[in-house]
């Protein structure tokens, strides 16, 4: 059988093989599996950018004693735009390898192994990019850490706020960038963040205010802040996580409460140690169905660890407020095998083009946001 015919057979079977292996890749990586389970992996995206709208303000409400109403178009949305990140993994079958591995079955098996290796590498990169900060490399995906740009404060500060100049999707994440007001009833000594609270002069993320004031601001909780006499994660984790849930739910409305707390492995085990004598953590049936039987349920949410989550960090997330968008009809696309006379080899490539899409308002992060 000719090599050319064998290569055609490889081309015909690669897509089918790759689709099956993509499923395996997502089952290996918690957040990818979670997004798939929640229906938040979107394929077949079109256009030069990923564009979506977020609700930033409410239509005006006025008190009136008359029967006449004044009408005006209410512009309640802001449009966010991000580009496409690209990830690629390549391999080749050179002439010597083709001659040594004669026969259709031998070459197809070899190509399958190469596709498996490339898919595994690409899946690993996709999992890592879920958390990455792409500010130094725009070809990377817009990971979670891209949103976490704290105005770093003192050791006693309980929260951080988005630093001046912080942007996402072409819009400012800074509190009050679109105007709006926030309540000032707690007093300086009772602010979550004493140092930055003194400059803010308001109660955020407690209190009340206009939706445009914080429509694009993530909540950043400093677990080494002044939460207790011991300023560390093991002591403060439950206090921090409870406040993250309340702040997202109270400021976001119905249905936006975090469904999962995803932690770095070290924070996960410290959390388990801190609650073992007071709380009974139960295995999560939801996570078990995804192939992660070791994950737990805590206070109505999934408690999970992820290998790719950076050390010393954690997040409160709602999958309905995020998505993984792919330009391909499948998660990954393939090119080749194609003969390259200069390389003297058949080349093939497995790639991803798309991005992670977030709604920062419904994200909380746990970290050390101090000088």
Lay out the secondary structure.
Elements: H1 3-28, H2 30-37, E1 41-42, E2 50-55, E3 77-82, E4 85-94, H3 95-100, H4 104-129, E5 159-160, E6 167-168, E7 171-172, H5 194-200, E8 219-222, H6 233-252, E9 260-263, H7 265-275, E10 282-283, H8 285-289, E11 296-298, E12 301-305, E13 314-317, E14 322-326, E15 333-340, E16 345-358, E17 364-367
Parallel strand pairs: 1-14, 8-17, 9-12
Antiparallel strand pairs: 2-3, 4-16, 5-8, 6-7, 9-13, 10-11, 11-12, 13-17, 14-16, 15-16
Helix pairs in contact: 1-2, 1-4, 6-7
Describe the structure.
- By secondary structure, the protein is an alpha+beta fold.
- The chain has a domain at 147-323 and 359-367.
- The protein contains eight helices and 17 strands.
- It has helices at residues 3-28, 30-37, 95-100, 104-129, 194-200, 233-252, 265-275, 285-289, and strands at residues 41-42, 50-55, 77-82, 85-94, 159-160, 167-168, 171-172, 219-222, 260-263, 282-283, 296-298, 301-305, 314-317, 322-326, 333-340, 345-358, 364-367.
- The protein has an eight-stranded mixed beta sheet.
- A hairpin with a 4-residue loop joins strand 15 and strand 16 (345-358).
- Helix 1 (3-28) runs parallel beside helix 4.
- The radius of gyration is 25 Å and the shape is globular.
- 39% of the residues are buried.
- Mean pLDDT is 82; it is low at 193-198.
């Amino acid at each position: 059988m000719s090599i050319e015919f064998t290569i055609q057979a490889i081309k015909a079977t690669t897509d089918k093989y790759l689709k099956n292996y993509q499923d395996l890749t997502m089952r290996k990586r918690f957040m990818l599996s979670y997004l798939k389970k929640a229906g938040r992996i979107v394929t077949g995206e079109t256009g030069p950018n990923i564009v979506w709208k977020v609700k930033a303000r409410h239509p005006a409400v006025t008190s009136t004693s008359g029967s006449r109403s004044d009408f005006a178009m209410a512009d309640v949305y802001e449009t966010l735009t991000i580009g496409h990140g690209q990830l690629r993994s390549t391999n080749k079958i050179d002439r010597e390898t083709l001659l040594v591995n004669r026969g259709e079955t031998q070459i197809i098996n070899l190509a399958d192994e190469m596709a498996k290796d490339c898919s595994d590498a690409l899946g690993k990169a996709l999992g890592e990019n879920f958390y990455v900060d792409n500010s130094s490399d725009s070809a990377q995906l817009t990971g979670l850490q891209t949103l976490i740009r704290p105005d770093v404060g003192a050791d006693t500060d309980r929260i951080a706020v988005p630093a001046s100049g912080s942007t996402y999707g072409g819009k400012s994440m800074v509190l009050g960038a679109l105007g709006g007001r926030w309540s000032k009833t707690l007093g300086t000594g009772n602010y979550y963040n004493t140092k930055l609270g003194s400059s803010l002069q308001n109660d955020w993320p407690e209190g009340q205010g206009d939706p445009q004031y914080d429509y694009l601001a993530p909540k950043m909780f400093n677990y080494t802040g002044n939460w207790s006499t011991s300023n560390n994660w093991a002591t403060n984790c439950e206090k921090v996580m409870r406040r993250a849930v309340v702040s997202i739910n109270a400021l976001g409305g119905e249905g936006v409460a975090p469904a999962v707390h995803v932690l770095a492995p070290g924070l996960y085990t410290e959390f388990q140690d801190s609650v073992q004598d007071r709380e009974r953590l139960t295995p999560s049936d939801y996570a078990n169905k995804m192939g992660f039987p070791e994950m737990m349920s805590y206070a109505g949410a999934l408690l999970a660890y992820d290998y790719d989550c950076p050390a010393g960090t954690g997040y409160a997330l709602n999958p309905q407020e995020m998505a993984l968008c792919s330009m391909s009809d499948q998660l990954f696309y393939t090119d080749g095998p194609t003969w390259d006379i200069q390389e003297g080899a058949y080349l093939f490539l497995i790639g991803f083009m798309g991005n992670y899409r977030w709604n920062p308002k419904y994200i909380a992060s746990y970290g050390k946001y101090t000088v």
